């Protein structure tokens, strides 16, 4: 059975596998044009800093993490620093990120594991990364893609929501989503695709009220109509520093 495109007013179409691949890649190319400068929105200068920042980003925003990490990174420069940290002092650095006690535990355990198993260095393999405290597959793919240029798909809340809304997959499990999307898009594109989908989820394709009428991807989106379709109304929902660029492309298309 060919997959049925879910959601929205266009959901009654059946789509062949080839048609799905072609549509997904058109949407990917559109995202490339909309967000040419997309990147990880966490600040870091080395793999350890990125790994720590991603661990801290759980249940909080990248903006909040970026407010905390300058002082944190100045104090704790190596994995051994985290392993030997004074717990109460480390917790104070993390307090505003939420769940700071659990995060302190994760960072101390992470530092110890890096020292004991990897000589204090962040490993470059997914299978090694996911064995570290506080590190799941999503975190590992962020680190691999952005610190080591190893392609990976980061399935966060935005990514999973959008690719399901777009009919790229119906899977809910993040690992299954990762594999399903990876089968549609060439491997070399995975890291940048992740950034651009996440950017789009934060700026245009909102969970409750997407800016459908001002979305440059609307021609290929089976869920068009989930949010307001009038350009002027939808334009007010678009967020972020790329807003003018997004609206220009949407108006042109």
UniProtKB/TrEMBL annotation:
A GO molecular function term, named singly, is: 4 iron, 4 sulfur cluster binding
Top-level taxon: Bacteria
What are the coiled-coil residue ranges? none
For activity, the cofactor(s) needed are: [4Fe-4S] cluster
Q: Where is the HhH-GPD domain?
A: 56-203
Q: To which protein family does this belong?
A: Belongs to the Nth/MutY family.
Q: NCBIfam families annotated for this entry?
A: nth
Q: What is the name of this protein?
A: Endonuclease III
């Amino acid at each position: 059975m060919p997959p049925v495109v879910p959601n929205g007013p266009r959901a009654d179409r059946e789509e062949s596998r080839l048609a799905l691949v072609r549509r997904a890649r058109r949407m990917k190319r559109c995202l490339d044009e909309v967000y040419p400068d997309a990147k990880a929105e966490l600040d870091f200068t080395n793999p350890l800093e990125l790994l720590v920042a991603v661990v801290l980003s759980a249940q909080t925003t990248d903006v909040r993490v970026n407010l905390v990490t300058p002082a944190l990174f100045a104090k704790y420069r190596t994995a051994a620093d985290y392993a030997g940290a004074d717990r109460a002092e480390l917790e104070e650095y993390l307090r505003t990120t939420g769940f700071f006690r659990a995060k302190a535990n994760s960072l101390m355990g992470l530092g110890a594991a890096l020292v004991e198993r990897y000589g204090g260095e962040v490993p470059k393999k997914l299978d090694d990364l996911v064995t570290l405290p506080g590190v799941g597959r999503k975190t590992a793919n962020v680190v691999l893609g952005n610190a080591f240029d190893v392609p990976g798909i980061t399935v966060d809340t935005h990514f999973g929501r959008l690719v399901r809304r777009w009919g790229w997959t119906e899977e809910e499990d993040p690992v299954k989503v990762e594999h399903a999307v990876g089968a549609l898009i060439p491997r070399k594109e995975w890291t940048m695709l992740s950034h651009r989908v996440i950017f789009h989820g934060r700026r245009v394709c909102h969970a409750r009220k997407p800016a459908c009428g001002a979305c440059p991807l609307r021609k290929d989106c089976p869920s068009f109509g989930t949010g307001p379709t009038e350009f002027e109304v939808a334009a007010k929902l678009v967020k972020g520093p790329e807003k003018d660029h997004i609206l220009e492309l949407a108006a042109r298309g």
